[in-house]
Amino acid sequence: MDADFEELSHDADIITRIKQFRDITLKIEDTIKYATDPAIYEKLSNTDKIEYNLLMSYCLNSMFWMYLRAEGIDPAKHRIKLENDRLKKSMTRAKQINDKKTLMPHINKDAAQRFVRNGLWEIKNKKK
After folding, report:
1. Are the C-beta atoms of 47 and 41 separated by less than 8 Å?
2. Among 103, 97, 106, which Cα is nearest to 46's?
3. Among 15, 95, 104, which residue's Cα sits nearest to residue 55?
4. Where are the membrane-spanning stretches (predicted)?
5. What are the residue ranges spanned by the domains of the chain?
């Protein structure tokens, strides 16, 4: 089946939009290649790996959401909606855990040792 685009050649707006779509698709492809490089992933801390994995899941779900929309399927009635809700809860939980680490009070070890040392007292033998 040969594609006949002769009728589209008269509409410059459609051709421009198709070219823009192709350029954006190539940029997305380059970004995905960079983002999935295993050498970069291995250098991340555990917290950064969690954020990376959540971001990648979110991106993939968004791409699938757009695919469903392009196919004329309502994504709000698809199982992807449940997956997006689960992912949002995971992102919220990861943020809460990260905030706990930064907002948690830190103990001054030297001061704590002085408190314990001075709090432990010994009864001195009194000479009678």
Report:
1. no
2. 97
3. 95
4. none
5. 44-120
Output the CA–CA distances (angstroms, integers) from residue 101 to 23, 80, 89, 107, in the order listed.
42, 32, 19, 13
Q: Do residues 59 and 31 lie in contact, with contact meaning Cβ atoms separated by under 8 Å?
A: no
Report how far residue 81's alpha carbon sits from residue 84's, in angstroms, rounded to the nearest whole number: 5
User: How many Cβ atoms are within 10 Å of 84's Cβ, its own excluded?
Assistant: 19
* Predicted structure pTM score: 0.55
- Asked if residues 111 and 78 have their Cβ atoms less than 8 Å apart, the reply is no
DSSP string of the chain, one letter each residue: -----TTGGG-HHHHHHHHHHHHHHHHHHHHHHHHT-HHHHHTS-HHHHHHHHHHHHHHHHHHHHHHHHHTT--GGGSTHHHHHHHHHHHHHHHHHHHHHHHHSPPP-HHHHHHHHHHH---PPPPP-
Residue that the structure tokens 């992933």 belong to: 41
